[in-house]
């Protein structure tokens, strides 16, 4: 019997890291279940979740009796546990393109802190931001747009010739600006919009959401 796959998600479906794992699972065509972890109730700190996930964060992935946390690790695990051609790859084929895709994933998780704070994911899926970016937020936005301008092909296609999870993650970051009406060059806005229309992405974006409750 195939071991069950279970993706542990936040209750409001606003985590960019849950997004990456959800899209990866859908793009690979894997059957999986959803388990909601109500962070607003501190459920991630309860021993039954904390001790198996190690880092006590979402997303987490169960594959049988194995639980793994941290979205980049989960994506890499799914690539190795369910490799191509058994399932579609979510990374580019060429080694340097794969390295660049991983660079993008690492970067959007570790940089642009002011932008992530001022254009949080609640502004994407609940209420758009009402205040202008601070100088720090504007500098982070400018950095994001500079990187996007370097990476997005002139023809508006995928970053590496065929779709990869890096396309989804970069588009997600750009939508922090787009969803709040911040200035984004037309070419980059159009590219991000095309990525946002992908079925696996739309399923996450359009998932029903309960009224938001802040959590720490």
Question: Which radius of gyration do the C-alpha atoms yield?
Answer: 17 Å
Distinct helical segment count:
10
Uncertain spans? none
The biggest beta sheet is recorded as: 4 strands, mixed
The level-1 CATH class of the largest domain:
Mainly Alpha
Strand fraction: 5-15%
Span from first to last CA?
Answer: 39 Å
Q: Any idea what the shape is? A: globular
Oligomer: single chain
Helix and strand sequence: EHEHEEHHHHHHHH
Q: Mean pLDDT, nearest integer?
A: 95
How many domains in all? 2
Derived from helix and strand composition plus strand pairing, the structural class reads alpha+beta
What's the arrangement of secondary structure elements?
Blueprint (H helix, E strand, L loop, with lengths): L4 E6 L5 H12 L5 E5 L9 H7 L6 E4 L2 E4 L1 H11 L13 H16 L2 H6 L3 H4 L9 H17 L13 H14 L7 H11 L2 H7 L11
Helix pairs in contact: 1-3, 1-8, 4-8, 7-8, 8-9
Protein described:
This protein has helices at residues 16-27, 47-53, 71-81, 95-110, 113-118, 122-125, 135-151, 165-178, 186-196, 199-205; strands at residues 5-10, 33-37, 60-63, 66-69. The protein has 216 residues and is an alpha+beta fold. The chain folds into two domains: 5-88, Glutaredoxin, CATH 3.40.30; 95-198, Glutathione S-transferase Yfyf (Class Pi), Chain A, domain 2 (Up-down Bundle), CATH 1.20.1050.10. A four-stranded mixed sheet has the order 2-1-3-4, with helices on one face. Helix 1 runs antiparallel to helix 8 (165-178) and helix 7 packs antiparallel against helix 8 (165-178). It is globular, with a radius of gyration of 17 Å.
């Amino acid at each position: 019997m195939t071991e069950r796959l279970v993706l542990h998600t936040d209750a409001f479906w606003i985590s960019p890291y849950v997004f990456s794992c959800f899209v990866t699972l859908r793009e690979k065509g894997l059957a999986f279940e959803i388990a909601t972890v109500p962070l607003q109730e501190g459920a991630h700190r309860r021993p039954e979740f904390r001790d198996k996930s190690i880092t006590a964060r979402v997303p987490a992935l169960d594959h049988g009796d194995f639980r793994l946390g941290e979205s980049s690790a989960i994506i890499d695990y799914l690539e190795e546990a369910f490799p191509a051609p058994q399932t579609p790859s979510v990374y580019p084929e060429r080694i340097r393109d794969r390295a660049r895709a991983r660079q993008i994933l690492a970067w959007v998780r570790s940089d642009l802190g002011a932008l992530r704070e001022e254009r949080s994911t609640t502004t994407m899926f609940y209420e758009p931001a009402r205040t202008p970016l601070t100088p720090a937020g504007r500098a982070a936005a400018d950095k994001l747009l500079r990187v996007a301008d370097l990476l997005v092909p002139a023809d508006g296609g995928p970053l590496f010739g065929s779709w990869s999870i890096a396309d989804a993650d970069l588009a997600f970051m750009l939508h922090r600006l787009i969803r709040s009406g911040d200035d984004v060059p037309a070419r980059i806005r159009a590219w991000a919009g095309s990525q946002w229309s992908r079925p696996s992405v739309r399923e996450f974006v359009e998932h029903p959401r309960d009224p938001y409750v802040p959590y720490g």
